[in-house]
Amino acid sequence: MHLQSVRDGPARAAGSAGRLLAAAGAGSGLAALVAAWACCLLPIGLGTRGAGASIVVALDGLVPWRWPLLGVSVVVVALGWLAHLRERAAARAAGYACTNGGRRLTPLLLGLATVPMALAAGWDALQPVVLGWLEPVAS
């Protein structure tokens, strides 16, 4: 059930902002994850599949961007969570007990945006394990 009124406009706009920030955070988190993988995992994986040296050299250019991309991702996702929590607080203060499905999508997107961020941030610890799994493939 969804309660809608004239006052629903600002809450809907805040939900849209949260979803937009979640999507931007997921994109920058994925970019940071690719930059983290660019030093070792992607060249090995692509090399075993016949990729040329030019692809490996291009990937090497992403490595310095890992931490700046991760920083942007953290800020954007944190802003997304803030917008979502403010929207929920405003809805509760206005007496809305029910929300629409779109407002349930925002925390899901924000939660999914944290996965590539966590992988990119912890990649230095995860890399030896993943490369150990790939050794039989590369041999």
TrEMBL record:
Q: Does the keyword Transmembrane apply?
A: yes
Keywords, sorted A to Z:
Membrane, Transmembrane, Transmembrane helix
User: Which ranges does the record mark as transmembrane?
Assistant: 20-45, 65-84, 105-123
The superkingdom of the source organism is Bacteria
Protein name in the entry: Mercury transporter MerT
- The organism encoding this protein is Chelatococcus albus
- Cite the source lineage: Bacteria, Pseudomonadati, Pseudomonadota, Alphaproteobacteria, Hyphomicrobiales
